[in-house]
Amino acid sequence: MSIAVTATKVFALTGQGLSSGCFGVVQQQNGTYLAGFHNTSDDYPYPSTGYWYKSTDQGASWSTAGTSAGLYGQAGAFAANVHANILLAPAFVPPTNTAKIIRSTNQAASFSDVFSEAPASSPNGRQPFVNGVLTYNRTHAIAWGQLDGNKTHTPRTYGLSDDAGATWTTYDTFDLGDSNDLANACGIADGGRFYLQYTRFGGANRVSAFARTDDAAANWTPLSAPPGGTGTPPNHAIAIACFTDTDVALAGRIGASPISSQPGLWYSDDAGVNLTLLSSSDVADWPSGSFYTYAYELKRLTRDAALLGIDQQNGTPGSPWRITLDKGHTYPITVTPSGSSWRTYQTPFGSSVVTRDGHILCTLWASDDYNTADLEIWRLSLSCS
After folding, report:
1. What secondary structure letter does DSSP report for 94?
2. Most-buried pick from 85, 161, 270, 342 (CB within 10 A)?
3. pLDDT surpasses 80 at 245
4. Are 103 and 143 in contact (CB under 8 A)?
5. CB atoms within 10 A of CB 58
């Protein structure tokens, strides 16, 4: 048996600026799918507009849903709580660079702030930001990043909401005696177990750390820092996929600088105690080059399958997505475009979603000249023969 994955481009915003980006796709309670993009002005204070589109036919066609103001940052992401029919979007807002989470209860027709944190007034204060949001248990959500601007106390690395994102309480993972920690990626397993990858800054030192909670963030267990096991630890994680409580895959980069780093995939089958770096031979068509080339998204599709998104900004066209069928141990399936070819520069920003009829909806930032970019929605189909 052979498995093929074909991608069809179903929507595009053409001629956008280099600072534009994608928020991804989410499913709403009534079967509607929402996709979000942003385009940031190149002029100070860099105002940004978010554009939202919806589909009622499993992602085959799209129409305007609404707009939002004040979103910034290419790496923005958002998550939906489909039971409460809400939308959450992390962002920070220039020129004050206030970190925000915004919410919509009417399918992106309008938005309101549900979390806001400004930088500390001290010149030595931190820049707060949100790296991502996930929802769980129908009305609960977790956000992570650097959620305060005060450098005089233990940093707030994550926030929790138990009312569908209406209110948030921030926490630190555990006190490491460091005033500059930030959370990079989070994964949620069944039964209230979370995994959090974060970075510790102690003076000039930068250390990758990993933690686990077995009781929905009430208590955290520090895992090895840097992670144990075989291979180089991640300098910066992008996403975590939990297949079971103990089988966990992590995507990120090796190298402190994004312009001189390599993609990396790690796997643990013992609840994060040991992380093993996957060999490049286990990843089909692994991109070469070091210019912003690293694993960017990791989306669990089923108990055993996952989608991997890879930043392709090294000037070598290739598939931005791979699929694994064995809990992340290998990524042998590449995605082939239908009726077109892959662009020179492309990044699968934002969250992906599996539709009710078995397709995968993804968003892509794509450019041929690194001058203007298109913001696209792709619909992936799997077939067996």
Report:
1. T
2. 161
3. yes
4. no
5. 16
